[in-house]
Specification:
Helix content is 35%, strand content 16%. By secondary structure, the chain is of the alpha/beta class. The strands form 3 sheets. It has a 6-stranded mixed beta sheet with strand order 6-7-8-9-10-11, sandwiched between helices. Strands 1-2-3 form a 3-stranded antiparallel beta sheet, with no helix packed on it. Strands 4-5-12 form a 3-stranded mixed beta sheet. A hairpin with a 6-residue loop joins β4 (134-135) and β5 (142-144). α4 packs across α5 and α5 (148-164) packs across α7. The termini are far apart.
Length: 392
C-alpha cells in the first residue's frame, strides 16, 4: 500500500511519513544519519585545515565517570563534566611534576615561573567568569573568552599533551621548560614540535650533547615519509617571559629589528642533507588593527629573506621554507586574548623539494590557526555541576 505523505509512518516513530522514512536514502539509511556523517566529515576537514590531523575522541560515560582517550593513552574515572580544556590543563600539571608545583607555590610572587603565574591567573579568571559567563544549553557548563594568561596556559597544555602522546618528551626539554632562564626557547620549540605532531609527524629530537651545529628536531610525515629538519628561534626581550630587566615600551617592542640575527643563527643549524625549515617568533605585542603587510616586523622579515634569497641558486640554498610567527598572548595579560600572527616564505625551487605538495599548505594552516583548541566534548550533557571551559 502507498502511504500518504501526512499519514503516520509505518516504522512506529509517531512522525508523519514525510518527516520520517519518506526521506530515507542510500539503501534505507535515514537522511538524519546521512546528515550526521556529513557534519562529522565537515568537522574533520575543518580540523585538518586547522592543522589537527590526529584523532580527537569525544569522552564516553561509563559507571558514573568519564573515560577520555588521547594519543595512545586512556584515562578512566575522569569527572563527568570535565571539559577537554580542563582535561588538558590537568595533564600539563602531571607532566611538569608535582614537586615542581610545590616548590613554586612556596616562592615569593616575584620569583615565580611564568607557568605558575599563568595558572594562578587562570584560577582568578575562572572566579571572575563562573557566575556571569554564558551557559551551554540547560547545563551548568559555562563558556568564556580567555584572557592572555589563560590562553597561554591552555596552549602550553595542548602542545605538551599533543607532543607527549605522540612520543616521550626528552627530560632535558622538560627541564628547560621548568627553568626560568631557558623557558622561552623550550616553549617555542615545544610549540613548533607539537604543530608537527598534530600534523601526523614523528618527532626525533637531536642530540643536545653534540658539539656540532644541529637543528632542534627532525619531523617525519608518516603519511608521505617526507622528512624535514626544523630549527626554531624566539626573540628574547627584557622583562618578558622570565627575562630579567624592564620591559620596553610597546613602540620600541614593535620597531626593534632583530630578525636578521635570528635568521642568520638559524641557518647555521642547517644539516644540509634533508629539507630544512626555520621558524622564528617575533615576541612582540599583537596588533590586530594593523594589516599584516603593514606590520613593522613583517616588512623586516620579508626584507631579510629577500636579501638572502636574491644571490642564491636553489643548489646553494637548501632551505625549503621560513615562517615568522608572533604567538605573543602573554602581552595581553588579563585582557581578552587576540589571534596570533604569522607569515611565511616558501622557497619555490629548493634543493630538496617536498614529495607531498600539500604538506606546506597544511603547515601554513596549522600556524595560521595556532591558538585554536577544539572543545572535544559529549554532544549532549546531563551536567548539573558548573565546570568552566576556555572557549573560542
Amino acid at each position: 500500500m502507498k502511504i500518504g505523505r501526512n499519514e503516520k509512518c509505518h516504522c512506529g516513530s509517531g512522525k508523519k511519513f514525510k518527516k520520517c522514512c519518506m526521506n530515507k536514502e542510500n539503501n534505507g539509511v535515514p537522511i538524519e544519519v546521512i546528515k550526521y556523517f556529513q557534519r562529522k566529515n565537515a568537522e574533520h576537514e575543518m580540523l585538518r585545515n586547522a592543522g589537527i590531523h590526529i584523532p580527537l575522541v569525544p569522552p564516553i560515560i561509563f559507571n558514573g565517570g568519564s573515560i577520555r582517550a588521547f594519543g595512545n593513552k586512556v584515562y578512566a574515572n575522569r569527572p563527568v563534566d570535565e571539559t577537554f580544556h580542563m582535561f588538558l590543563i590537568s595533564l600539563l600539571q602531571n607532566e611538569i611534576g608535582k614537586d615542581w608545583w610545590i616548590i613554586q607555590q612556596n616562592l615569593p610572587q616575584s620569583a615565580k615561573h611564568f607557568i605558575t603565574i599563568c595558572f594562578e591567573k587562570f584560577q582568578e579568571w575562572m572566579q571572575r567568569n563562573a557566575n556571569t559567563a554564558k551557559r551551554l544549553g540547560k547545563t551548568n557548563i559555562w563558556v568564556a573568552k580567555p584572557d592572555g594568561y589563560s590562553k597561554s596556559l591552555l596552549l602550553l597544555a595542548f602542545d605538551v599533551v599533543s607532543l607527549s602522546h605522540m612520543q616521550k618528551i626528552p627530560d632535558s626539554l622538560l627541564n628547560r621548560l621548568r627553568s626560568h632562564n631557558e623557558y622561552q626557547g623550550a616553549r617555542y620549540e615545544i610549540a613548533i614540535a607539537a604543530i608537527f605532531a598534530r600534523l601526523g609527524c614523528e618527532i626525533t629530537f637531536t642530540d643536545e650533547k653534540s658539539s656540532n651545529k644541529r637543528c632542534e628536531f627532525i619531523a617525519k610525515h608518516t603519511a608521505s615519509s617526507f622528512t624535514l629538519a626544523v630549527e626554531a628561534k624566539s626573540r628574547r626581550r627584557k622583562g618578558v617571559l622570565n627575562e630579567s630587566g624592564i620591559q620596553p615600551g610597546q613602540e620600541k617592542l614593535l620597531n626593534e629589528h632583530a630578525t636578521w640575527r635570528l635568521f642568520k643563527d638559524a641557518l647555521e643549524q642547517n644539516p644540509k642533507d634533508v629539507p630544512f625549515t626555520v621558524f622564528i617568533d617575533i615576541n612582540a605585542p599583537l596588533t590586530p588593527d594593523i594589516p599584516l603587510d603593514d606590520k613593522s616586523w613583517v616588512k623586516d622579515a620579508k626584507e631579510v629573506v629577500q636579501n638572502k634569497l636574491k644571490d642564491c641558486s636553489p643548489s646553494e640554498y637548501p632551505l625549503s621554507a621560513v615562517f615568522f610567527t608572533n604567538f605573543s598572548y602573554h602581552y595581553q595579560t588579563e585582557k581578552e586574548a587576540q589571534e596570533g600572527e604569522m607569515m611565511g616564505v616558501i622557497v619555490p625551487h629548493p634543493k630538496f623539494p617536498s614529495p607531498d605538495p600539500k604538506f606546506f599548505g597544511y603547515l601554513e594552516g596549522a600556524l595560521r590557526h595556532y591558538g585554536f583548541v577544539p572543545p572535544v566534548e559529549l554532544e549532549k550533557s546531563s551536567s548539573e555541576t558548573g565546570i568552566p571551559t576556555i572557549y573560542e
